[in-house]
Design goal:
Length: 160
């Protein structure tokens, strides 16, 4: 049974704390494969119909489309990843910051909604003393669940 805190939508402060905490010492192609494989394993356990993507410095290092995912998931991945690349923050956090100001990303960012989506599921790959070098993205579940799946995988991968 889920507790109320697990069902609660994370606050901007909680999302910012996740980003401060989930930082890599380095991020290699092998790390991308291992993290992506972990995400696929977690998604398969839940029979989640998701696509998983990892990009670093403009290069796709990992991609998987699980049963039930569609080409639309790839389009969502690209739009969410662009938000991370532009803002240096998780796509869900960016959208949450707009909502906290009483508006939406779509209304106030002045960015093309066909190119950018501040919906949950893309998280920055941040390397200590370097900064954001890429993004890990999931699409196929409701946005808070996409976000939580990525965070869970990062926590496990980073040994938290």
């Amino acid at each position: 049974m889920s507790s109320a805190s697990e069902a609660a939508v994370p606050t901007v402060e909680e999302l910012e704390a996740q980003e401060r905490r989930l930082v890599f010492r380095r991020f290699t192609n092998d790390d991308a494969w291992a993290l992506g494989s972990l995400l696929v394993e977690l998604a398969r356990e839940r029979q989640a119909p998701v696509a998983v993507d990892i990009h670093r410095a403009g290069q796709q290092l990992f991609h998987a489309a699980l049963p039930g995912s569609t080409p639309d998931n790839d389009a969502w991945i690209a739009r969410k990843r662009r938000v991370v690349e532009r803002y240096g923050s998780a796509s869900y956090l960016v959208g949450s910051r707009f909502r906290a100001k009483g508006t939406t990303f779509e209304e106030s960012s002045r960015l093309d909604a066909d190119t950018y989506a501040a919906h949950g599921g893309s998280f920055p790959i941040t390397v200590a003393d370097v900064g954001v070098v890429g993004a890990v993205t999931v699409s196929g579940l409701p946005q808070v669940e996409d976000h939580r799946l990525v965070v869970e995988a990062l926590e496990r991968f980073l040994g938290e």
